[in-house]
């Protein structure tokens, strides 16, 4: 069989430039945001950027991001603040966040990484957790997913979830099912140590 080099193609070590990956992500977000804002304005929507608070019945005051204040009134006020990632109630987590805040990531802050972590612990085997677990695995991290339930993606059919688990394990992802993260603490060199207890009573440690 002929090799790629026989056709003049030479391959070498693949390197990930996370700064460029992050910059591309930021550029895409900025482009989509600008496009969304432009479409709203073109549709005749007045867009105020800032922090709003009720100051009266059907009356909202907005502290504008660029400075100044504006008050608006409306018959209906629709509140759509979106969602933010929340930290789980995990023993020791508050102390870890205080000691090494840059090591505790959520679905937003993980997108700002400027280097691929050597190891990554993902709590939860839902859609978002698995997306980032597979991404970081493919970028070179050693990744462990700890899932409280008996299968990944609890809302999916069991056979679908099992097939996905097989694919991810074959890629090199470590998946611990039917297990609970019980305690977290900082270890040597500011690494994080996670204590895990499985349904069978087995106690595991991962860093």
Description:
- The protein has 207 residues and is of the alpha/beta class.
- The chain contains four helices and nine strands.
- The strands form three sheets. It has a three-stranded antiparallel sheet with strand order 1-2-3, with no helix packed on it. It has a three-stranded parallel sheet with strand order 4-5-6. A three-stranded antiparallel sheet has the order 7-8-9.
- β7 and β8 (192-198) form a beta hairpin.
- The radius of gyration is 23 Å and the shape is extended.
- The two termini are 43 Å apart.
- The model has no long low-confidence stretch (mean pLDDT 91).
Please tally the helical runs, counting DSSP H or I stretches of 4 or more residues. Answer: 4
Low-confidence stretches: none
Strand portion: 15-25%
Specify the biggest β-sheet.
3 strands, antiparallel
Arithmetic mean pLDDT? 91
Say how many strands there are: 9
- Class by alpha and beta content: alpha/beta
Anisotropy-based shape: extended
């Amino acid at each position: 069989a002929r090799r790629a080099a026989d056709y003049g193609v030479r391959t070498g070590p693949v390197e990930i430039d996370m700064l460029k990956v992050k910059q591309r992500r930021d550029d895409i977000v900025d482009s989509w945001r600008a496009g969304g804002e432009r479409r709203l304005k073109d549709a005749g929507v007045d867009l105020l950027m800032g922090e709003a608070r009720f100051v009266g019945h059907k009356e909202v005051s907005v502290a504008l991001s660029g400075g100044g204040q504006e008050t608006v009134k409306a018959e209906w006020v629709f509140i759509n603040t979106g969602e933010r990632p929340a930290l789980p109630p995990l023993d020791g987590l508050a102390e870890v966040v205080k000691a090494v805040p840059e090591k505790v990531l959520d679905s937003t802050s993980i997108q700002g990484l400027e280097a691929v972590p050597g190891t990554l612990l993902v709590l939860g085997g839902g859609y978002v957790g698995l997306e980032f677990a597979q991404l970081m695995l493919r970028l070179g991290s050693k990744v462990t997913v700890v899932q409280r339930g008996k299968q990944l993606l609890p809302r999916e059919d069991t056979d679908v979830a099992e097939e996905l688990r097989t694919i991810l394990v074959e890629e090199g992802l470590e998946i611990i099912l039917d297990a609970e993260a019980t305690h977290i603490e900082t270890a040597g060199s500011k690494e994080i140590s996670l204590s895990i207890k499985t349904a069978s009573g087995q106690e595991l440690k991962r860093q």
